[in-house]
Design brief:
There is one protein chain. By secondary structure, this protein is an alpha/beta fold. It has one domain: Spore Coat Polysaccharide Biosynthesis Protein SpsA, Chain A. The protein has six helices and 13 strands. The strands form four sheets. A seven-stranded mixed beta sheet has the order 5-4-1-6-11-8-12. The chain starts with 17 loop residues before the first helix and ends in an 11-residue tail after the last helix.
Length: 264
C-alpha cells in the first residue's frame, strides 16, 4: 500500500449539518452492488509494533472487539455473505478467531499468501478465483468506517468505485480528485482514499501473479476514465499506529458506534 493511502485519521466534516450527518453514511452511486467482499489482512503492521509482534493488526482490540469483527459485522449488515480474508503475518490466528464465519452470518474463506505477503494488488489478484463473478467489495484491514456498505455500487463502465474522505492531517494533499462522480488524479482539491472500494475483475487484466501494490493499477484506470467514486461524510478511522488506534478506542468508549457498525 502506498504511504498516502495509509493515512490515519478520524474524519468528521465540520460543515455538515446535524441533519445531514444522520445520512452521512449513505452511499449514493447507482450501478451494480458487490456480490462478495474481501478484507485485506495480510500485512505485518510495522508501524503498529510492538503491538503486532505477537498478533496480526486485524486482531487488535478496538472497543472490546478485534478490528476484524467490526469489519465482518459491517459486511454482514451490507447483506453480503461470501467473504475472503487474505492471510500473511500470523495469519493462523485470524483463521482460528474467525473460523468459517458462521457466527457472523457469513461464509469466510481464506487466501493464504504466506510471508512476506503479496501487497494490496497482488493479494487481490491472488484471491480473484475465490471472489466469484460480479463486482466485489474490498476493505483495508486497518480501517473503521460508518459508511453503509450495502449502498455502494459500481457504475456501468467503471472498473472501480472508491470511497473517498476529506483529508486528515496526516495526508493533507490527498490521493485523488473527485469531479461529478469521476475519480481523477492528484491535484488541487484531492481527497483521501478511505481504503474501501468496489472493483471488477477486469481491473486486473494483464496483471501478473506476484507482489505489487494496488495504487498503480488504480492510477492507470483513472487515466483511462474507468474509476468512479463518492465522498463519505461520516466517521472514518484508518488505524496505522498505536496512537491512532487509541483514538479509535477513545471514540468507541464514548459510545461512538453510529451507523451499521454496531457492536458484534
Amino acid at each position: 500500500m502506498c504511504a498516502a493511502m495509509a493515512a490515519v485519521a478520524e474524519y468528521r466534516d465540520p460543515m455538515v449539518s446535524k441533519s445531514d450527518r444522520r445520512d452521512a453514511g449513505k452511499c449514493t452511486a447507482s450501478g451494480t452492488p458487490a456480490s462478495s467482499a474481501m478484507i485485506l489482512a495480510a500485512g505485518r503492521g510495522e508501524r503498529m509494533r510492538p503491538l503486532t509482534d505477537d498478533r496480526p493488526k486485524t486482531l487488535l482490540d478496538a472497543g472490546g472487539f478485534p478490528l476484524v469483527d467490526w469489519q465482518l459485522r459491517a459486511v454482514a449488515d451490507a447483506g453480503l455473505r461470501s467473504v475472503v480474508i487474505n492471510l500473511g503475518w500470523l495469519g493462523g490466528q485470524i483463521r482460528q478467531h474467525v473460523g468459517d464465519g458462521h457466527h457472523f452470518g457469513l461464509s469466510v474463506t481464506y487466501s493464504d499468501e504466506g510471508f512476506p505477503p503479496l501487497e494490496t494488488g497482488g493479494g487481490i489478484l491472488n484471491a480473484l478465483p475465490l471472489l466469484g463473478e460480479g463486482p466485489f467489495l474490498v476493505i483495508n484491514g486497518d480501517v473503521w468506517c460508518d459508511a453503509r456498505l450495502g449502498d455502494l455500487r459500481c457504475p456501468a463502465g467503471s472498473l472501480a468505485h472508491l470511497v473517498l474522505v476529506a483529508n486528515p492531517e496526516h495526508n493533507p494533499d490527498g490521493d485523488f480528485r473527485l469531479h461529478e462522480g469521476q475519480v481523477l488524479g492528484r491535484g488541487p482539491g484531492a481527497m483521501t482514499f478511505s481504503g474501501i472500494g468496489i472493483y471488477r475483475e477486469k481491473l486486473f487484466d494483464g496483471c501478473r501473479a506476484g507482489r505489487f501494490p494496488l495504487a498503480p493499477i488504480l492510477e492507470g484506470a483513472i487515466q483511462r476514465g474507468q474509476v468512479t467514486g463518492e465522498l463519505h461524510r461520516g466517521r472514518w478511522f484508518d488505524v496505522g499506529d498505536p496512537g491512532r488506534l487509541e483514538r479509535l478506542r477513545q471514540f468507541l468508549r464514548r459510545g461512538g458506534r453510529a451507523g451499521p457498525l454496531q457492536a458484534p
